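Incident log, support desk, overnight shift.

02:14 A customer reports that sequence design results differ from what the structure should imply. Their input is reproduced verbatim below. On-call engineer (initials T.W.) acknowledged and began investigating.
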């Protein structure tokens, strides 16, 4: 197909087309005239409809060039050149609507490629002196096909284009006098598209690599390197997803502030390496005790915060706190610790219009209240907006 600028190897190298995507222009199964399609908003060139629209513009250019140049330099060749030029224009006109036909996209791609090369070749063969102005057309066809559907498909398109060019120049009196030029044109029709497709492939790989690297850095910026849980920045991002533009909660939600009991003794008596392993295991068990959509953050040291955007009832939050306590107990067993290890939890019901910093601060206060009561338990409280009242205990 004529020149495409898209390089979707991940979606199209297996013969899948990006599809016509004309939903905003045509209704499935309903006939719409090409005039309506072309006059509508131009589609992106990487789509099948966008390619058909582009082909129609190229066909009009070919007719214009054939008429003007041959009418000026070789009027006797005009009668031979106009029919194939008009035939290509008619093909392009029809194809604007053909992209909506219920036919295999792959079959349409190959049929369009063959017709593109054959009709352009016919124009070149009939054009006489003016045919030199159309040498670019087979290359544009092959380059566009290769960029849209991958280097391998581009190679096949270039081979077909090169063959058509070789036959046309061999049979045309205008090119028959220069054998090396004929071969050069045929090679150009092959080498240029293949080079463009390979280069685009390398650029796409570099783009994908850069995108993956950016995602890696973004993940590291939002996650704790030891446990893989969210860090403070990640917690802020998660809270921002369910907060107002002013950075305050849109609705009531739960927040649980966890602090491990006995972890300092593990670090002191068994070493920081064992302590890190314990934190990793605790993090895994806490994650498994929650839904995948519930953000969990390691604030630092042995302190964790869990956001519960969809939980705004005391009974639910206390049930979750009980599950998290059991998760820590299971982590202790998995680590084979002989030392005691538990968790104190501040369970905070965060009312709407509360900032994250206030909610975390209140969760921290409730957690320390649980420790003062004897550790390995939870303390429930409510955090109201500052404009209403101070955060209060249950």
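02:41 Re-run completed on a clean worker. Output:
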């Amino acid at each position: 197909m004529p020149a495409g600028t898209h390089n979707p190897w991940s979606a199209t190298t297996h013969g899948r087309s990006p599809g016509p995507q004309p939903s905003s222009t045509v209704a499935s199964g309903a006939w719409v005239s090409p005039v309506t399609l072309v006059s509508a908003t131009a589609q992106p060139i990487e789509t099948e409809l966008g390619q058909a629209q582009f082909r129609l513009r190229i066909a009009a250019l070919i007719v214009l060039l054939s008429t003007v140049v041959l009418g000026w330099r070789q009027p006797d060749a005009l009668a031979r050149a106009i029919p194939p030029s008009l035939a290509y224009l008619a093909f392009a006109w029809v194809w604007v609507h053909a992209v909506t036909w219920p036919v295999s996209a792959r079959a349409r791609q190959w049929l369009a490629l063959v017709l593109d090369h054959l009709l352009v070749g016919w124009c070149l063969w009939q054009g006489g002196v003016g045919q030199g102005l159309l040498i670019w057309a087979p290359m544009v066809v092959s380059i566009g096909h290769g960029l849209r559907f991958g280097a391998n498909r581009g190679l096949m398109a270039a081979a077909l284009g090169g063959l058509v060019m070789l036959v046309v120049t061999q049979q045309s009196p205008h090119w028959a006098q220069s054998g090396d030029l004929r071969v050069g044109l045929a090679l150009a029709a092959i080498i240029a598209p293949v080079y463009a497709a390979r280069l685009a492939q390398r650029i796409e790989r570099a783009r994908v690599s850069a995108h993956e690297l950016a995602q890696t850095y973004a993940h590291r910026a939002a996650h704790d390197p030891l446990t893989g849980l969210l860090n403070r920045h990640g917690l802020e991002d998660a809270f921002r997803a369910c907060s107002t533009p002013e950075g305050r909660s849109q609705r009531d939600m739960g927040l649980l502030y966890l602090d491990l009991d006995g972890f300092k003794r593990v670090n002191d008596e068994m070493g920081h390496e064992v302590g890190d392993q314990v934190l990793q295991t605790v993090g895994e068990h806490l994650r498994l005790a929650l839904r995948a959509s519930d953000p969990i953050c390691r604030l630092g040291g042995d302190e964790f915060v869990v956001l519960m955007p969809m939980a705004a009832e005391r009974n639910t939050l206390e049930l979750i706190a009980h599950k998290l306590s059991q998760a820590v107990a299971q982590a202790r067993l998995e680590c084979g610790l002989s030392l005691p290890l538990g968790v104190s939890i501040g369970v905070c019901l965060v009312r709407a219009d509360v900032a994250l910093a206030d909610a975390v601060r209140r969760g921290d206060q409730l957690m320390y209240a649980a420790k003062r009561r004897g550790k390995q338990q939870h303390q429930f409280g409510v955090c109201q907006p500052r404009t209403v009242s101070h955060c209060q205990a249950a």
